Amino acid sequence: MSKYIFKRVLLMIPTLIGAGVLVFFLMRLIPGDVCELRFAGTGLYVDQAQIDTCRSNLGIDRPMFVQFADFMIGFFTFNFGDSMWTGKPILFEIGLRFELSLQVAIMATFVAVIIAIPLGAISAIKQDTWLDYAVRTFAIAGIAIPSFWLGIMIILGLLIVTQQVTGIPWMPPIDYKPIWVDPAHNIAQLIWPAVATGYRYSAVATRMTRSALLEVLREDYIRTARAKGLIEKIVINRHALKNAMLPVVTIIGIEFAFLMGGLVVTEQVFNLNGIGKLFIESVQNHDYAMTEALVMLVVLIFVVTNFIIDLCYAWLDPRIRYS
Amino acid sequence: MAIVNEASLEAQLEELEEKTPWFLAAKTMARKQPVGVAGLIIVLLMVFASIFAPILTPFHPEFNSFENMLTPPNATYLMGTDQFGRDIFTRIIYGAQTALFVGFSAATIGAFAGLVLGVASAYFGGTFDLVLQRVMDVFMAFPLIILALAVVATLGAGTENVIIAITIPFIPQCARVVRSNALAIREIPYVDAARALGFGHMRIILRHMAPNVMAPFLILFSAFVGQAILLEASLSYLGMGVQEPTPAWGLMLQGGAEEYAESAPWVAIWPGIAISLAVFGFNLFGDAVRDTLDPRLRSR
To answer: If phi over 0 gives left and psi between -120 and 50 gives alpha, with beta otherwise, what is residue B246?
Structure first.
């Protein structure tokens, strides 16, 4: 097992370096750089010398190879440097927003899991009944409805309902307060984006639960369990559901990793200042250092999540042994 | 002793391949998958709407009437007008063209590239497989939005560039699934037989292995079309996708939709329904294809 873990960790390194190469060159393919952009923003006349000074201060006039080596060494030693746009440390800028994004992702996962597992299980147990069709339609709708549109509809719905009930239209608060400072305010703001993304997320997981459980229910050991007279509830809970959880855990993990970098659109709708917004801003500002750090963060989360999923496999399914 | 020449064996192999009951599968599907047929009808309606858009719509998609800005739905403007006085119904119908174009191009390019790479990866194995899988890992892990932003910032915004941005993440997704299926096929003796006959690698990959991973491929393909429509809508909504004045559903939700959500909800409601319905249709259809092709998922 420890040998497997070691090999698996080693395999993460090429992925991380590959992602580093990709983001590094992708960013430098974009015409213009942060210095030109900054001076263009002032609207004043700038001479070449000023731009050159700015570039040399940021170190982006050095040879590509040196810059790349610098970036990679920085990443593997957790020294990300400063944002090229704001000049503040990158870890500080990310830290400001990470909390919000992480909280939304966790809440969305929670919403997804409490919807997906019971619904998926019911759907599989009652296969080809109206209940199954209803759950499947609900799930496919979840995948089909764009979460940003669902967000707009949630805001619209809140406005109309509160207008009708109280006479004063109510909108979720816009300013972010951490959950330990003002829990009510925090939840009132973040529950809506969590629901909007959680529905889509739950749809994916519901479908996975259903098809995994359907497959497991056809296994011989389920027939054995039934044959020895176990009541159906125990057959489902103890024997079937636990074995069907493997692919569900995988999909939950992958979606969670995706949420960490994929909340961009939802943040836009609900006007949240999270990682997604920082992503867009840093690419638009040609902030190489910040974009590189963000991409590496998201890729790292993705890679580590996959690693944890693989380990969960061994734990959930005793037949899988890594050597 | 009869001389078995390459051509006749090849013909026999082809004959065997042709016996895959695609037609039968289609017939069974229509009978057993009424839901899938509903999906197919939605898809066909979309195709119909985009082909006959000029006949079906009362206005030109870019025609704006400044006297009729944000008009609620009425007899002339079936779904109302947007903030520029453009007929929403017309733009929804024309939007189907954009959605289908982006959806099918991205899905086709992504799925076929993934198919070839996935089968090749399984067929060659070894270092080629290892290296290719690591490259695929990178693209799977890489945030789509950054790819899209970079593509748009480098090449400029526009429909073709959106397709590029959307296609890239499809390739590894498809390659991964196809590879795991192709690994099993590689062990079946007919691949060895084909190799023994001296066929080239390309021929074995394309003619002998690829057709046998069609089931997962078709399932992925139909899912990709839906996903591509959804991604295009998201990118256009963020302003990184299709640009004005091209009618596209995601773009119709940008700007005006939120701003006027309270006073003119129809601006936001219709395009969202159109996106959802389109993706819904493709997914229903894809599910039915999967259930028909995958015997493990059939009813007990």
So the answer is: beta
pTM summary value: 0.83
Looking at the 3D structure of chain B, how many domains does it have? 1
State how far the Cα of B190 lies from the Cα of B71, in Å rounded to an integer.
66
CA A103 – CA A262 distance, rounded (Å): 14
Question: Residue B29 CB: number of other CB atoms within 10 A?
Answer: 19
Please, are residues A100 and A176 in contact by the beta-carbon 8 Å criterion?
yes
Q: What span, in angstroms and rounded, lies between the C-alpha atoms of A261 and B146?
A: 9
What's the Cα-to-Cα distance from B129 to each of B6, B175, B183, B189, rounded to whole Å? Answer: 30, 11, 11, 21
- Which of B124, B110, B270, B287 lies closest to B205 in space, CA to CA? B124
Nearest to B153 by CA among A155, A141, A280: A280
What's the pLDDT tens digit per position in B242-299? Answer: 887 788 888 888 866 667 767 777 888 888 899 999 999 998 888 887 777 765 544 4
Mind giving me the DSSP string for B45-97?
HHHHHHHSHHHH-SS-TT---GGGTTPPS-SSSTT-B-TT--BHHHHHHHHHH
Query: Which residues constitute the domain of residue B167?
Result: 40-54+85-298
The answer to whether residue B217 is domain-embedded is: yes
Decide if A39 contacts A54 (C-beta within 8 A): yes
- At B73, give phi and psi (nearest 5°): -55, 135
Distance spanning both ends of chain A, measured CA to CA: 6
Task: Please report where in the chains the tokens 């910040």 appear, as a residue.
Answer: A290
The residues, any chain, with a CB within 8 Å of residue A281's CB and separated by 6 or more, are A85, A287
Residue B13 located in a structural domain:
no
CATH code, domain with B172: 1.10.3720.10
Query: Concatenated DSSP letters for B105-156?
Result: HHHHHHHHHHHHHHHHHHHH-HHHHHHHHHHHHHHHHS-HHHHHHHHHHHH-
CATH code of the domain occupying A98-316:
1.10.3720.10
Q: From the centroid of its chain, how far is CA A7?
A: 26
Contact with chain B for residue A86, Cβ under 8 A = no
What token pair was written down for A290?
């910040």
Distance from CA of B154 to the nearest CA of A (A): 5
What long-range pairs does A170-175 form, CB within 8 A, spacing at least 24?
Answer: A172/A270, A174/A271
**pLDDT (tens digit, 9 = 90+) per residue, A119-173?**
999 999 888 888 988 898 899 899 899 888 998 889 888 888 888 888 887 878 8
Residue of B nearest to A14 (CA): B134
DSSP letter at A86 equals T
Domain boundaries along the sequence of chain A: 2-76, 98-316
Rounded to an integer, what distance in angstroms lies between the CA atom of residue A138 and that of residue A14? 40
Under an 8 A CB cutoff, do B145 and A15 touch?
Answer: no
Across the interface, whether the CB atoms of A26 and B146 are under 8 A apart is answered yes
**A148 vs B: CB within 8 A:** yes
Residues pairing with B251 in the sheet:
none
Instruction: Give, for B4, the enclosing helix (H) or strand (E).
Output: none
